[in-house]
Amino acid sequence: MLNAKIPAGPLETKWSKYKSTVKLVNPANKRKLEVIVIGTGLAGASAAASLAELGYKVKAFCFQDSARRAHSIAAQGGINAAKNYQNDGDSVFRLFYDTVKGGDYRAREGNVYRLAEVSAAIIDQCVAQGVPFAREYGGLLSNRSFGGTQVQRTFYAAGQTGQQLLLGAYSALQRQVALGNVKMYSRHEMLDVVKVDGKARGIIARDLVTGKLERHFGHSVLICSGGYGNVFFLSTNAMGSNVTAAWKAHKAGAFFGNPCFTQIHPTCIPVSGDHQSKLTLMSESLRNDGRIWVPKKQNDNRKPTDIPEEERDYYLERRYPAFGNLVPRDVASRAAKERCDAGYGVGASRMAVYLDYADAIVRYGTIEASKRGEDNAPKEEIIAMGKGVVAEKYGNLFDMYAKITGENPYETPMRIYPAVHYTMGGLWVDYELMTTVPGLYALGEANFSDHGANRLGASALMQGLADGYFVIPYTIGNYLADEIHTKPIPLDHPAFVESEKKVQGQLDTLMNIRGKHSVDHFHKALGKIMWDKCGMARNEQGLKEAINEIRALKEEFWKDVRIPGGQHEFNPELEKAGRVADFLELGELMCMDALMRRESCGGHFREESQTEEGEAKRNDENFSFVAAWEYKGPGNFDLHKEELNFEIVHPTQRSYK
Amino acid sequence: MKLTLKIWRQQNNQAKGHFETFEVSDVSKDMSFLEMFDVLNERLINEGKEPIAFDHDCREGICGACSMYINGRAHGPWHETTTCQLHMRAYNDGDTIVVEPWRASAFPVIKDLTVDRSAFDRIIQAGGYISVNTGNAVDANAIPIDKTDADHAFAAAACIGCGACVAACKNSSAMLFTSAKVSQLALLPQGDPERKQRAMDMVAQMDKEGFGSCTNTGACEAECPKGISLANIARLNREFIAAGFSSEA
Ligand SMILES: Cc1cc2nc3c(=O)[nH]c(=O)nc-3n(C[C@H](O)[C@H](O)[C@H](O)COP(=O)(O)OP(=O)(O)OC[C@H]3O[C@@H](n4cnc5c(N)ncnc54)[C@H](O)[C@@H]3O)c2cc1C
Ligand code: SF4
Ligand code: FES
């Protein structure tokens, strides 16, 4: 059994007690300690900036041309915090409770409580940095609701919350760059973790412009490289999002936690053809006001606006009256799949449902009219005012929908379908965010920590910033306090030489295959296997087939991939090839993990384990644990377990009815 | 649809570039502009040729990575739309499309359509932040902010740092980008203490990077995918002048 090192004592005092007793590093020593941060998303940028402010010497890496372009920039809907500004009964405990329940009782209580506890300080910090959150007319901050909760605790900046939060963290990071406390390496990709005497001591990175390999020393290394949803090829993630940094850490000894826990987001723009390169999210915030429906008749070909009210099935409101359109994502996604599989889907492919704003437009229009004292305004004017309000709240999302589909969502309901969005799985970390390799940490989406088997909306941004601003600055000291006598390890140390040789070997092998098929060809094939057999619904037979198919595909990849261009130059195809090679290994592990977990929980739906109503059925007796996989060589992984103990929240069948 | 593409090819920063012409068929109207490039690149790889290098990541119009100069316009023909959000519905069968990288001496070409925009990071480093260490903040609602100011700050903060404003400007000025950040922070009470120094330092860095001066042609605003307004440039000018006066005093 793995030990997560959760501090003893009552839940409410664990973190404060930890903070006040943890080892400290004095300022003079901090200047001698070097920290490598891989990734400049919310987790990486906030960590790098905060550690540099404390006095550590930081090197930060990202593969984009600027730290500001990390995938976090694309987050739309919002960030949760237990501020209770709305006076609607929110509290640290409630946020904690909602998150544990939302995660279908597969997360650690201690971690989640800490997350809820620091959430309020995140909003304070961001506002101080100049993050322009939405405000009410009185000048105070505005909130909206998200799925899986009954309070309004989500802070937002139109549909661009991730952008604004990231630019806040990015500016804090640039300030430290200017002060000389952070050295920034953009267009660099980390390709290995270097270990000396069992501890993480540095990395090998490739300069993506020149193709040169570089060695970097650090007293510790932080992996903040984001999620691995792109293992499915099509996902809402940015094109470059990948698992490579986390996977290299895994191969260096860090266990991988719950790899099969994937979030399929219910509201995305459906696939339009074979050329599709990615899927676009329509923020969950749209479920605040939009209503989801399909026709009551199968294969109904009428235009949505021609289908009368009584012939529409608002299936979420029907099945889940208490939460309605705001059920958690896993529940909403499965319900959409169920309707489409049963023949009620809409659009050309019939793999879509409607997200309808007609009611919301009238409702907002009426409120607006009464605010302006125009209670008897004609219907068209009310609708026009309503559209104005909706545009202010969601305009950028509606515009995006219109550009992609060529349809006007103010006039006709949007067509949506679930898509891969987020990975709850990731590097296993203890309470201090340290992986099973001493000195190697994982933050943000790259770790497995706080969301259990299903993440609630607006909680990833919260977790990334909690990890970076408020957790790692304390926990890293506990490790580095014992490293103050460790001198920087020379870069010609055999561990660096060996590691670089291995990386160079893989690059040479890839370049020398000179096969017939592009990297994307293999990536798409992998994505199809994963989506069909390890996607929204999984079963034993399918998973076994998937494992064999992935193994065969992997073999073919290493025989037949074609990478044009050279190694010592800017070569995006070579970058992609390395990432797909890692996805192929990860995909196999995800299927193994899904096969092992013979229960349904959150986003992991094993068809063999469902209630009569088709809801996910957990098996707490046998599966109340975190699966942490150890790498033992190609295709060979050992399972370790971290038992989950629930002292406060008692696991029950999750109900949103 | 069948289209003719004339695309800038340049092996690296030192090499001389040239246009290369490609005929593409089977372009669907539902494709995004970059998906058309994906299809073309797949074909080039299959033919044993080198694909066209271009920057992109989110493909949702928010990361600011994509950066193509299309038929003489930064990000192509659609109003307030990045290259990645441009869809082939914008074109007709038989069209010829010329695609170039951003052209500015402060944005050197790395390869084909990929350029180096790190100058923007350095402008931010010069002062595009509020100096507040983690943990130093007061309660988020302690300072109410007038909604109009907050909305204007948000509108300025929407800049994605793509560089289209520079590419569109005949002087390659970075004023729209710089002014967007200066404005955002000047409009918020939190940004007030450093506002003078910020304006001076960021403008100084902009000049040092080799961006040209602003002659108010408005080309930047017209091509900015995020609708960043020229009013920000006016505000930067006011900030800059005010800073100049007070530093002399
Ligand atoms: C479209 C979309 C909308 C979302 N909306 C919301 C929302 O409204 N609310 C919410 O809470 N969550 C949302 N999420 C989820 C959330 O955005 C992410 O989980 C979160 O931003 C991840 O942050 P991160 O810092 O962990 O990683 P990322 O932001 O993904 O950053 C990863 C960083 O690692 C770097 N990197 C990766 N590999 C390497 C390598 N090998 N070498 C060097 N650098 C590397 C990258 O360059 C990048 O800088 C959304 C996600 C998507 C896809
Ligand atoms: S001001 Fe507009 S064009 Fe210029 S960088 Fe910002 S978003 Fe791009
Ligand atoms: S690829 Fe991100 S803005 Fe176009």
For this structure, the quaternary state is heterodimer
- Helix/strand-derived category of chain A reads alpha+beta
N-C termini distance of chain A: 36 Å
List SSEs of chain B in N-to-C order: EEHEEEEEHHHHHHH
CATH homolog superfamily of the largest domain in chain B: Alpha-helical ferredoxin
**How would you characterize the largest beta sheet of chain A?**
5 strands, parallel
CATH 2nd-level architecture of the largest domain in chain B: Orthogonal Bundle
Ligands bound, unique: flavin-adenine dinucleotide, iron/sulfur cluster, FE2/S2 (inorganic) cluster
Using the coordinates shown, work out and report the CATH topology of the domain at 266-419 in chain A: Flavocytochrome C3, Chain A, domain 1
CATH topology of the largest domain in chain B: Fumarate Reductase Iron-sulfur Protein, Chain B, domain 2
Radius of gyration of chain B: 20 Å
What is the number of beta strands of chain B? 7
Keywords (chain A): Flavoprotein, Oxidoreductase
Domain Fumarate reductase/succinate dehydrogenase flavoprotein-like C-terminal (chain A): 523-656
Domain FAD-dependent oxidoreductase 2 FAD-binding (chain A): 35-461
Protein name (chain A): Fumarate reductase/succinate dehydrogenase flavoprotein subunit
Can you give a write-up of this model?
The complex is a heterodimer of chains A (about 650) and B (about 250). A 5-stranded parallel β-sheet of chain A has the order 5-2-1-9-17, sandwiched between helices. The relative contact order of chain A is 0.16. Chain A has about 650 residues and is α+β, with helices and mostly antiparallel strands. Chain A has 17 helices and 19 strands. In chain A, strand 1 (about 35-40), helix 3 and strand 2 (about 55-60) form a beta-alpha-beta unit. Among the domains of chain A are: about 265-420, Flavocytochrome C3, Chain A, domain 1 (Alpha-Beta Complex); about 495-620, Up-down Bundle (Methane Monooxygenase Hydroxylase, Chain G, domain 1), CATH 1.20.58. Chain A has helices spanning about 15-20, 25-30, 40-55, 90-100, 110-130, 160-180, 245-250, 315-320, 330-340, 360-370, 380-405, 460-480, 495-515, 520-535, 540-560, 570-595, 620-625; strands at about 35-40, 55-60, 80, 155, 180-185, 190-195, 200-205, 215, 220-225, 255, 260-270, 290-295, 310-315, 355, 415-425, 425, 440, 625-630, 635-645. With about 250 residues, chain B is α+β, with helices and mostly antiparallel strands. Chain B has 2 domains: about 5-110, Ubiquitin-like (UB roll); about 120-250, Fumarate Reductase Iron-sulfur Protein, Chain B, domain 2 (Orthogonal Bundle), CATH 1.10.1060. Helices cover about 35% and strands about 10% of the residues of chain B. Chain B contains 8 helices and 7 strands. Chain B has a 5-stranded mixed β-sheet. A two-stranded antiparallel ribbon of chain B has the order 6-7. Chain B starts with a strand and ends with a helix. The model of chain B has no long low-confidence stretch (mean pLDDT about 95). Flavin-adenine dinucleotide (FAD) binds near residues 71 and 224 of chain A.
